[in-house]
């Protein structure tokens, strides 16, 4: 069903792509690709995106196990808590996106990653009772909204002719980094314990934030070089 909707939605998109393709000849595209590879900010952002993916996939693997085995919640309550984590993004994503357009990408990304790491670590101490759903809701404020901001940061940094190439590189590196993360957190949770698993997830958020701090991302209202 979604395939038919996509075909209908994108039925006229080829016209714009053909126009863009004619405007950017092969020589210019090679030059843009060269600048893309030499971009000193692109690769750290790619690594940050990968670390964020590692943290998210580890969290989504760990959280249901924790809610079932350690907190002892029923299947319905577990589903409600996971739904709460996802539902918060409905409001958080547009707000975070607006703030990143207004204030700059790094001004929202760095505090947000630190926020996600801090809330994850708070689960070690307040991961049961009334505090649990509150922390899950607070975690949802940024654990999903950071993804479109990172994507926007890529669009700010690269030329129009190589946007897909840049996003493809970022997705490939992110997949390589995050593919093993669920197994890592599962092994840590099973053989070391709950706290160690949460420290693992939180540290990924913190490392991503630390790597982001010294970067100078292009503001949305400036022209990428």
Please explain how this structure is put together.
There is one protein chain. The protein is mainly α and 225 residues long. The N and C termini lie far apart (41 Å). 30% of the residues are buried. 79% of the residues lie in helices and 0% in strands. It has helices at residues 2-9, 13-23, 26-38, 42-70, 75-87, 89-103, 105-126, 131-139, 146-157, 163-178, 181-191, 194-212. The chain is built from 12 helices and no strands. It has a domain at 62-212: Growth Hormone, Chain: A (Up-down Bundle).
Task: Give helix % range.
Answer: over 70%
Proportion in β-strands = under 5%
CATH hierarchy class name of the domain at 62-212: Mainly Alpha
Compute the number of helices.
Answer: 12
Mean pLDDT: 85
Number of strands: 0
Q: Gyration radius, to the nearest Å?
A: 20 Å
The arrangement of helices and strands along the chain is HHHHHHHHHHHH
Looking at CATH, which topology of the domain at 62-212 would you report?
Answer: Growth Hormone, Chain: A
Largest sheet: none
Describe the protein's topology.
Elements: H1 2-9, H2 13-23, H3 26-38, H4 42-70, H5 75-87, H6 89-103, H7 105-126, H8 131-139, H9 146-157, H10 163-178, H11 181-191, H12 194-212
Helix pairs in contact: 4-5, 4-9, 4-10, 4-11, 4-12, 5-8, 6-7, 7-8, 7-9, 7-12, 11-12
List keywords for this structure.
225 residues, single chain, 12 helices, mainly alpha, disordered C terminus
Question: What's a quick, concise take on this entry?
Answer:
This protein is 79% helix and 0% strand. The chain has 225 residues and is mainly α.
